Every structure is written in C-alpha cells, then in structure tokens.
Amino acid sequence: MRNLKITLAYDGFDFSGWQVQPNRPSVQGTLAEAWKRVTGEGKLPQGSGRTDAGVHALAQVASLATESSIPTANLVVALNDILPAAIRVTLVEDVAPNFHARRSAKTKTYRYRIYRGGICPPSLARYVYHHPYPLDETAIAEAAGVLVGEHDFTSFAAVDPEKRDEEGERNNIRTICSSRWERAAEELVYEVRGNGFLHHMVRNFVGAFLLVGKGTLKASDLLRILQAKNRSENPGATAPASGLYLVSVEY
Description:
Elements (H helix, E strand, L loop, with lengths): L1 E9 L16 H13 L6 E2 L8 E11 L5 H11 L4 E9 L11 E9 L13 E2 L6 H7 L5 E4 L20 E12 L2 E8 L6 H14 L4 H10 L15 E7 L1
C-alpha cells in the first residue's frame, strides 16, 4: 500500500466545486473517475479543502492510498491523458502513510483578481471579477491588515448553518497570517494566507473591502464587523467565484 500526494490545477468554471455532488460535475469526482480508469481502483481522492463552484486552483492538493505500483511520473501522464483539459495533474509524489491532504495542511494561500479596466477581455471574463467602477484603492490596501491575526470569522462566513467550512469543520476561529492588496496592470489583486478558511470567507472579505473602496465602510468598521461575530452585521456582498484562486497549500 502506498500513499500518494497529488498536486493539480483546474479551471473551476464548469465544475460545481471540488466536492462530489449528485448529478453535478465536480473536480473530485472527475479525478476519481480518471483514477479508476488508470488503476482499476474505486478510490475518492481527499482534497486539502472544498473549493466552491466556479473557483479555480493553481495548486490544489489531494491524497490517496493505493495498491497500484505505477510509477508516479507515469501516473501524471496517464491521468492527464484521461482528464478534461480543465484539470491538469502537475505532480504525483509518494509520501508518508500518515500524510493527509486536509489534516496535514498548515497554511493555504488564496488570490482574488478584480479587473479594473472599462472593457474586460473575453479571454479573462471567467477568471476575474470585472469591477470598473470608482474605488479608493489606497483605502482598500490600508485596510487589508485589519483581518490579520487569530479571530472568530463568523461575520465573514456563509450564512447557511448546514454549510461546513472548506475543511469540513464548524469551528469559526482561524488565523490569518497575511492580507494584502496590490495593483497589477489592469487588475487589483488580493492575496491572503491563513491556516484555514470558512465557507465563502475570502469572497466575503473581498465584498467588505469593496465597500471600503466605495467609502461606505472604513477600516475601523471592518474591525467592528469582525468583533460582532455575526454575518448580518457585514453589509458586504459575497464576491463572485470567478475571481478566486487557491494558489498553494503548505505542509
């Protein structure tokens, strides 16, 4: 028996998210089908987290125990021959028996891309959030640090009580290690690194920051919202999934 670490990238536009769902295409389910065709094993790869419908990944990580003796380099080739072009396995590695993609993860980094130009190129439309309207980008950048630290992030979590966070937990306390906004040509880009993220958490961060950019909220309001531990105290909308990327997972 071997334990494998699978690193993959995907365009989330055509998928209902990472997690298997009845009668809906998922990244996890598509990878499992490819694995069965390659090895004959009916295994379900365990991901580092449950990215939402429409969310992309540059380096999602999955783990899988297998009896297959196929070399790791050959598995990369074989899986990519079967998987749709929207999913690419970039690396397969043999790892220790106790490695688990979710439970062993220490930190994750997410990126959110906002296209600020007046006309969004069609080639970018499914990979960014197009927001050409006036924003005080300096105020947004200065407010980013408010969220850094260990907090109860209930005010930035999805409202649905039946929705667990991307790690499958119900505890809303997380640690944000870094939070920053930067201009990159026509894009305003948010990057956040933490030890875990609640359902919709990054997209709700972005929605609140946009209100700071519009002058509706101030940095001090973000702190007040955070301390309220209540999603109804956060007037920010959940930003669209199209601009969000899982960038990396650290172990």
